[in-house]
Amino acid sequence: MINIIWFFILAFGIGFGILSGRGEAVSKSIIASSDASVKLMISLLGIMCLWCGVMKIAEKSGLMNKIASLMRPILKVLFKDASKDERAIGPIVMNLTANMMGLSNAATPFGIKAMDQLSNLNKKKEEASDDMALFLVLNAACIQLVPTTVISIRAAMGSKNPAETIIPAIITTTISAVVGVVCCKILQRYF
């Protein structure tokens, strides 16, 4: 559906530009924006490789496991059914830890595994369980300790201090995660 929407937005813009007699400006704009996009992607590639390497070192050095061991007791309180099953809580911990460290590529397989395990624990197969909804909220609003993508984009665009977003990111993602958990816990009582 989103592809159709984007198609119509682009087709309308290009068509309007051509019909209003600004076809040359439209073609120059398309070429310039394509050139800028490729330059941004190339600069992001290098920065993302650097951050992924740093995060991989954090993973291999055991830092992620230490963070996971700190999170495990908190998550056992939040997840009522998953806390009783190590096969479910393990992937949840690893997914959230990887997300916190900015390793979203590493977090995805753990998220899929966690949701699969939560689905196995779900008694009502036709609807999501409370733990599944809570995990989805925590996965979407995960606390970011190192927002690597934002830092990378800011660096690629020439920011003088691309990492200055770390503290605001920690604050805002913590608030969003807490609000999400509170909303889930309140809604669990009624639905």
From TrEMBL:
Name the residues that span the membrane: 37-58, 133-153, 165-187
- Which keywords describe this protein according to UniProt? Membrane, Transmembrane, Transmembrane helix
- InterPro entries for this protein: Gate_dom
Q: Does the keyword Membrane apply?
A: yes
Where the record annotates domain Nucleoside transporter/FeoB GTPase Gate, the positions are 42-155
Q: Name one Pfam family in it.
A: Gate
Report which superkingdom the organism of origin falls in: Bacteria
Keyword Heme carried by entry: no
Q: Name the chain's protein.
A: Spore maturation protein A
Lineage, top ranks: Bacteria, Bacillati, Bacillota, Clostridia, Eubacteriales
